[in-house]
């Protein structure tokens, strides 16, 4: 990863795309009652035309080969326009990076041209299931309920995943299933490539979410779904090796998406307080309000610096990588976004509570990443484990 093309300014492309294509329609899509109607294929197709959907794909396969740091910046720009759209694209960008790194040459040649050439080709990853969420982040010795059993020429998958981003709209899935019962989901699970449609694989509920509504999340249902051997990603029992080795920047992208929401809220606060006149002055001229703005700016800049450190370290790898960077930047960015959007709501007074200004959407959107990509408390515990692992053992 890291062979970026020429001098193309992907951050500027993402900013323009967000402002011109996404922002004008985001509020209207967000308000649709049926979650499936909030998702827009027009936006996905336009992102394909702009090159954003495939920007992490290597130039060999028709992408731009942008690195993780640039991807984080692109994802933040999209998040400024709408969190859901940022997530739809970010999922595809990060899973494409993993596919390129973890897939065999034959798998790359089979799947990556489809990803490059189909303007609606999106990617999804299915790990979470009703019984196992924090468990897999914390390596709790529990089996996935979704199982893969060996048969002649491949595997038969049964079970259910839920909460899966792009779940009902993706064309290809990275799916984690238990292959060695009793070994725990970290040591006993295997990753499979599941194209859609596949016999025995269907979509269940599309979740009705509080925010991030322009992205869809869905249940994945497997009933005797046959997966041929050639669709096994990595090795049997090595499912979590795929995540730890090839997903280092994932947490940074999640952080960037929600940081986009914080940045948008901050800008709304600046614009509002410069024009709202109360107490004989524009709000921005009252010291307590000005201090709020300075605090927002400080939190956002600090979160961005942290996220970029993680994305850069993910690109460089080796000793630059610190496992806490795979957990904590998202925790910090989502807490910052929660504070910044809530302060923005306060600065807008009653106007912020009325839906027409779109401030309440920012508050709802920011809340998504307190839970998505791992619940924050769970990620703090995950980071704490790697801190403990750094310490010398007693005696
Ligand atoms: C918008 C959204 C998008 C998502 N997209 C995807 C996706 O694309 N693919 C995917 O696989 N998953 C996805 N997820 C799942 C996500 O990664 C989280 O793992 C999941 O949301 C956690 O949900 P849960 O309610 O099951 O949490 P639980 O694991 O039940 O945790 C509930 C609470 O208990 C705490 N807790 C849990 N275990 C412990 C413990 N051992 N000690 C102390 N506290 C603990 C947690 O920190 C949390 O506060 C998504 C989730 C959301 C909300």
Task: Give an overview of the whole structure.
The protein has 395 residues and is of the alpha+beta class. The chain has three domains: 10-122, Butyryl-Coa Dehydrogenase, subunit A, domain 1; 125-240, Butyryl-CoA Dehydrogenase, subunit A, domain 2; 248-390, Butyryl-CoA Dehydrogenase, subunit A, domain 3 (Up-down Bundle). The protein has helices spanning 10-30, 35-38, 41-50, 68-81, 83-102, 105-117, 134-137, 239-246, 250-275, 287-316, 328-347, 349-353, 359-368, 376-390; strands at residues 123-126, 147-151, 154-165, 172-178, 189-195, 201-206, 217-228, 232-233, 277-278, 281-282. Strands 1-4-5-8 form a four-stranded mixed β-sheet. A four-stranded antiparallel β-sheet has the order 2-3-7-6, with helices on one face. Strand 2 (147-151) and strand 3 (154-165) form a beta hairpin. Helix 1 (10-30) runs parallel beside helix 4 (68-81) and helix 4 (68-81) packs antiparallel against helix 10. The two termini are 42 Å apart. The structure holds flavin-adenine dinucleotide. Flavin-adenine dinucleotide binds next to strand 1, strand 3 and helix 14.
> The CATH topology of the largest domain is what?
Butyryl-CoA Dehydrogenase, subunit A, domain 3
Helix tally equals 14
Backbone structural class = alpha+beta
Architecture per CATH nomenclature, i.e. the level-2 architecture of the largest domain: Up-down Bundle
User: Into which percent range does the helicity of residues fall?
Assistant: 40-55%
Radius of gyration from the CA trace?
Answer: 21 Å
Poorly predicted tracts of residues? none
Compute the number of strand runs.
10
N/C terminus separation: 42 Å
Outline type: globular
């Amino acid at each position: 990863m890291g062979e970026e093309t020429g001098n193309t300014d992907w951050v500027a492309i993402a900013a323009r795309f967000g402002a011109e294509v996404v922002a004008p329609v985001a509020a209207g899509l967000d308000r649709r009652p049926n979650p499936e109607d909030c998702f827009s294929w027009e936006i996905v197709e336009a992102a394909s035309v702009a090159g954003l959907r495939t920007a992490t794909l290597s130039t060999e396969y028709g992408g731009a080969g942008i690195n993780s740091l640039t991807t984080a910046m692109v994802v933040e720009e999209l998040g400024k326009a709408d969190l859901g759209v940022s997530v739809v694209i970010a999922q595809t960008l990060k899973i494409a990076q993993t596919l390129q790194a973890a897939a065999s040459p034959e798998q790359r040649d089979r799947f990556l041209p489809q990803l490059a050439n189909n303007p609606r080709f999106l990617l999804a990853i299915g790990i979470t299931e009703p019984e196992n969420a924090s468990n897999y982040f914390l390596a709790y010795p529990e089996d996935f309920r979704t199982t893969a059993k060996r048969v002649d020429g491949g595997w038969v998958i049964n079970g259910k995943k839920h909460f899966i981003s792009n779940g009902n709209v993706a064309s290809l899935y990275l799916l984690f299933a238990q292959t060695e019962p009793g070994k725990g989901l970290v040591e006993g699970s295997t990753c499979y490539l599941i194209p859609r449609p596949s016999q025995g694989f269907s979509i269940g509920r599309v979740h009705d979410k509080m925010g991030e509504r322009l992205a869809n999340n869905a249940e994945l249902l497997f009933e005797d779904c046959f997966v041929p051997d050639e669709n096994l990603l990595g090795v049997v029992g090595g499912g979590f090796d795929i995540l730890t080795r090839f997903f280092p920047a994932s947490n940074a992208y999640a952080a960037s998406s929600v940081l986009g929401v914080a940045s948008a809220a901050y800008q709304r606060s600046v614009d509002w307080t410069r024009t709202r006149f109360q107490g004989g002055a524009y709000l921005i001229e009252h010291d307590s309000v000005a201090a709020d703005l300075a605090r927002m700016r400080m939190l956002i800049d600090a979160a961005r610096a942290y996220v970029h450190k993680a994305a850069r370290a993910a690109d460089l790898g080796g000793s630059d990588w610190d496992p806490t960077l795979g957990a904590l930047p998202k925790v910090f960015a989502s807490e910052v976004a929660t504070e910044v959007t809530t302060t923005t709501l306060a600065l807008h007074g009653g106007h912020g509570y009325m839906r027409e200004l779109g401030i309440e959407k920012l508050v709802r959107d920011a809340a998504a990443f307190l839970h998505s990509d791992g619940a924050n408390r769970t990620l703090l515990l995950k980071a704490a484990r790697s801190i403990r692992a750094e310490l010398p053992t007693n005696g």
